[in-house]
């Protein structure tokens, strides 16, 4: 799917690959918003949650530090939620958070059930079927600790992010978007990382190691939160598609206006 020359380049330039993935993910989120408006942002949040859960277990080394690939997709959830808050208000953003939580629960449940199906034993496909089944087990066999920590951290931190974003917006009279975007995301990401590290890692590793893993992950999240600031300023001034805008006005006539 990807030309071999590009594959070879990124194999030896993993930092460039990480930055390219981040820019591509933020850009595609903006494309979803540009084309589909509010619904597109909600869909981007749901998609990012699924990608973060599926790619979260994949560990890699970026800038000399070990991190999870899912940190990019999980961090852009906060970007999409902040943009949704800015354009459509707290109520709409809050519903998107709950929708993302619901999708996560359903996805984990249904993917776990898929592991209960035994691979085919038909002679022509048995070997292939077993390989695929084992691959599914490696990716989808979530432990209860991981599921509980991930869902709990997401729901609490995202709800807090929406609340704090609008508290800062009210306090600053709608000025200084960069303050509320960065401060709400960085604070809620600290909350998310703390909950995840204590619930998921502490007990598997000692407390010191759990904290160290969380700090590295949080460092990447801080970078992404600052990096996405120009993107949210750019998107704030866009006019959403007429169908999405009209639908939002009919359903949410009292949403906050863009400042």
Summed up, the helix count is 11
Rounded to the nearest angstrom, the radius of gyration is 20 Å
The percent range for strand residues is under 5%
List the domain count as a whole number.
Answer: 1
Q: Assembly type of the shown chains?
A: single chain
State the secondary-structure class: mainly alpha
Strands of the widest sheet, in order across it, are: 1-2
SSE order: HHHEEHHHHHHHH
Number of strands: 2
Secondary structure: helix percent: over 70%
Q: What's the overall average pLDDT, rounded?
A: 84
The N- to C-terminal Cα distance equals 43 Å
Question: How would you characterize the overall build of this protein?
Answer:
The protein is mainly alpha-helical. It has one domain. Helices cover 77% and strands 3% of the residues. It contains 11 helices and 2 strands; from the N terminus they run αααββαααααααα. It has a two-stranded antiparallel sheet. A hairpin with a 2-residue loop joins β1 and β2 (65-68). α7 (144-171) packs antiparallel against α8 and α8 runs antiparallel to α9.
Short note summarizing the structure:
By secondary structure, the chain is mainly alpha-helical. It has helices spanning 4-11, 14-36, 38-55, 70-88, 90-114, 126-140, 144-171, 177-201, 207-227, 229-236, 242-251; strands at 59-62, 65-68. It has a two-stranded antiparallel sheet with strand order 1-2.
């Amino acid at each position: 799917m990807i030309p071999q020359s590009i594959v070879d380049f990124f194999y030896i330039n993993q930092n460039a690959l990480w930055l390219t993935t981040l820019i591509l993910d933020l850009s595609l989120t903006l494309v979803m918003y540009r084309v589909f408006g509010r619904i597109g942002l909600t869909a981007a949040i749901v998609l990012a949650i699924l990608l973060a859960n599926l790619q979260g277990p994949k560990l890699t080394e970026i800038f000399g530090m070990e991190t999870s690939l899912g940190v990019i997709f999980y961090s852009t959830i906060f970007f999409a939620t902040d943009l949704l808050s800015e354009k459509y208000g707290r109520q709409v953003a809050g519903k998107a958070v709950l929708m993302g939580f619901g999708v996560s629960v359903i996805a984990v449940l249904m993917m776990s059930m898929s592991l209960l199906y035994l691979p085919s034993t038909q002679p022509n496909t048995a070997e292939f079927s077993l390989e695929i089944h084992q691959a599914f087990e490696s990716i989808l066999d979530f432990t209860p600790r991981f599921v509980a920590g991930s869902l709990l951290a997401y729901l609490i931190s995202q709800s807090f992010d929406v609340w704090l974003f609008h508290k800062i917006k009210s306090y600053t009279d709608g000025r200084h978007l960069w303050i509320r975007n960065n401060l709400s995301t960085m604070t809620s990401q600290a909350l998310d990382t703390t909950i995840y590290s204590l619930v998921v890692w502490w007990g598997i590793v000692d407390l010191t190691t759990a904290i160290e893993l969380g700090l590295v992950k949080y460092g990447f999240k801080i970078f992404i939160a600052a990096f996405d600031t120009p993107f949210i300023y750019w998107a704030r001034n866009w006019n959403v598609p007429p169908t999405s805008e009209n639908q939002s006005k009919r359903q949410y006539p009292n949403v906050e206006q863009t400042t």
